[in-house]
Amino acid sequence: MTTTTARTVTVDGIGPVQLTVTQRGDGRPFLLLHGGAGLPSVEGFADLLAGSEHAAVLTPVHPGFGGTPRPEHLDSMKALALVYTQLLADLGLTEVTVVGNSIGGWIAAEMALLNSARVGSVVIIDGVGLRLEAHPIVDFFALDFSQVTDLSFYNPDPFRLDLAALPDEQKLVMAGNRAALLIYGGTTMFDPGLLERLPAIATPVLVVWGTADRIVPPEHGHAYADAIPGAQFHLIDEAGHLPQLETPDLLLRLVWDFAEANNDGRPTG
Fold this sequence. Notes:
By secondary structure, the chain is an alpha/beta fold. It has helices spanning 40-52, 77-90, 103-113, 145-152, 168-185, 194-197, 218-227, 243-246, 248-262; strands at residues 2-11, 15-24, 28-33, 55-60, 96-101, 119-125, 205-210, 232-236. Helix 2 packs across helix 3. The protein contains 9 helices and 8 strands.
């Protein structure tokens, strides 16, 4: 069963935030956080996870993406982490596995740093957020869509879009996504202090990276895993920045097995 609801989450210091949240399936709870490509980049994986396993998969839309409103005061990954942690509390969920790709991975790391009992484990998939001078994140906002596609995938051709052929409404949504991404992550897509804060994470963490990621080099995955106590690291061959699109079955096994090993599976608190 798939249901989409509008929820208002209120966080101290941030205020009310309207969220669009879709739930697929029932069972072990997952919060699946999309990256700059928007909700469509994780919907197929959400279907696969909920359809293959006994899993309840929540996929919120980051406010400002997908044509949704973004309150002016919601302007950072830390703020989004607070919002999503409060969402889990409002839903009464515990032992949730938070899975995030790209900026979703950054948000997932910030959620782990909050040390909430709601979060049982975290999976960071090709996450941005770290500053590594020797291995910089690509200057995303200097690229056109075709260049982003080239750098994002092991095999880019199946994922190319003819932008000129897209409806005007979809073009507006994509422009809105890009604007929201700039607000949340800035032009650099990193927090210079995040790497130093990661050792405070006590939550079990799995870091997954595509070897062909040329948006965020795999060295960032190693840095995440090395900085987080006890973190596991897994490289996926034949995948780039979005393994959930290129190697979904392999990613499914990694995510599900990690969740089973590190959560007791209680769906509610």
